[in-house]
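Handout, page 2. Input:
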Amino acid sequence: MSLDPQPLAPALEAAEAAGRTIVRLDLDGVRGKAELMRRCGDALRLPEWVGGNWDALADALRDLSWLPVPESESVPGGGGWLVAVTSWRGYAAARPGEWETLVDVLEEAVAFWRERAGGSELVVVLAEAEAEAEAETESSGPVAGAPPPTGRLYTKPSPPD
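Output:
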């Protein structure tokens, strides 16, 4: 599984239709791990026992008992949580090693919830502003300030015919 950037509006609509609880993690202006951990704590309403380190964040994302229980557990295939990570490109460019670790933590949490039989599911979306997504689609190169493509986070454009 990999996290591919995608427009925010369709992801929110799909999450709403599936009865997911939506959490927005805005990384605008985040340039270091301490600020990232504070933003995660605020957005996810993490309990005080969650320390400011990767292992604690990973453990917390496999728990989520403090987040509101999705109302639509009765929706077939529904329920769960959507974490929409917005304004992430600046942090990814400023701290590529930390960014990769965060992505690993998020992917592991998604896999954990996906493997749970009959339980709620966690979905994480690297959300792009609509204008950003359009600019990337129309240009032949990457968005300014974005980290270089790494098959892990980005899909490579198809070669021209």
